[in-house]
């Protein structure tokens, strides 16, 4: 799974409407018009994956990798700080999202894998990516290598390694999203925007939870990403855990202290999910994945397969992104039907 995308002194021309959560981001006040020195905000220090990082100014040429990461920047209204984004074209339709204007204004640098040469060509001063969301020792693309050539990095909090080999995850998935919004709000001096987004997301999640199944009515749920010999799925630290749990489901892989990882089919059969959520992306379509699940003989007796309780969510709904709260709302409706 994910392994495979100038300080602003002017007002935003209009409020940024977030269709997925119904929130509007209020434009930041023009500090110079108010007689304040914007540079007085700096330096600022944030903690990112256990490392304290200090910024003397807002990065001016950010390169992002992958759709969820890119949309975090768009949701914060930071397109003016971006040099571009890297993203395959199998992660969703950018024209049908709340932040389509961000895609229109920002350069799509590549549909291939991010690399150091691309970053240097873009004259980036910061890369916003994550472990297995772009950063990968095997390909020599790491924060340490970027630092060696004078480019800073910010790691997606969902991807933080936890000290157990390359296992990822140090906090609940939604808290990872909120942490990145707070940190980026501070780094780019848009803390009010970040606070507004977080408050709106928290309200949407609370509203969804109020209507979601509870107690013994919570259906057992399995996240299926891909894979036939062994399924790739979500542990406790990837986005689907909080999406499933807060939507009223009992995530059957909640005991896995990792983010995206593989398990054995026998474990899935033993835990007998009542609902399966398919992650829709990549060269294998959601319908092909559904067909595999329904025809794979070892799963024939699993409740979700037997009762045809298979739900599809898009990749960007399930990785850390500003679409996570809307995904909780959507899945809560599906799980309520399954529980009835």
Explain what this protein looks like in three dimensions.
The chain has 340 residues and is of the alpha/beta class. 33% of the residues lie in helices and 19% in strands. Strands 5, 6, 7, 8, 9 and 10 form a six-stranded parallel sheet that branches. A four-stranded parallel sheet has the order 13-11-15-16, sandwiched between helices. Helix 5 packs antiparallel against helix 6, helix 6 packs parallel to helix 12 (324-339) and helix 7 (239-246) crosses helix 12 (324-339). The model is unreliable at 4-24 and 30-35 (pLDDT under 50).
Brief descriptors of the model:
single chain, 340 residues, alpha/beta, six-stranded parallel β-sheet, four-stranded parallel β-sheet
Radius of gyration: 20 Å
- Assess the beta-strand content as a share of residues: 15-25%
Shape call? globular
The secondary-structure class comes to alpha/beta
Sequence of secondary-structure elements: EEEEEHEHEHEEHEHHEEHEEHEHHEHH
For the secondary structure, the number of strands is 16
Give the count of helical stretches: 12
Q: Would you tell me the overall average pLDDT? A: 90
Q: Tell me roughly what share of residues is in helical segments.
A: 25-40%
How many strands, what sense, and barrel or not for the largest sheet? 6 strands, parallel
Q: N-to-C terminal Cα separation, in Å?
A: 32 Å
Uncertain runs are 4-24, 30-35
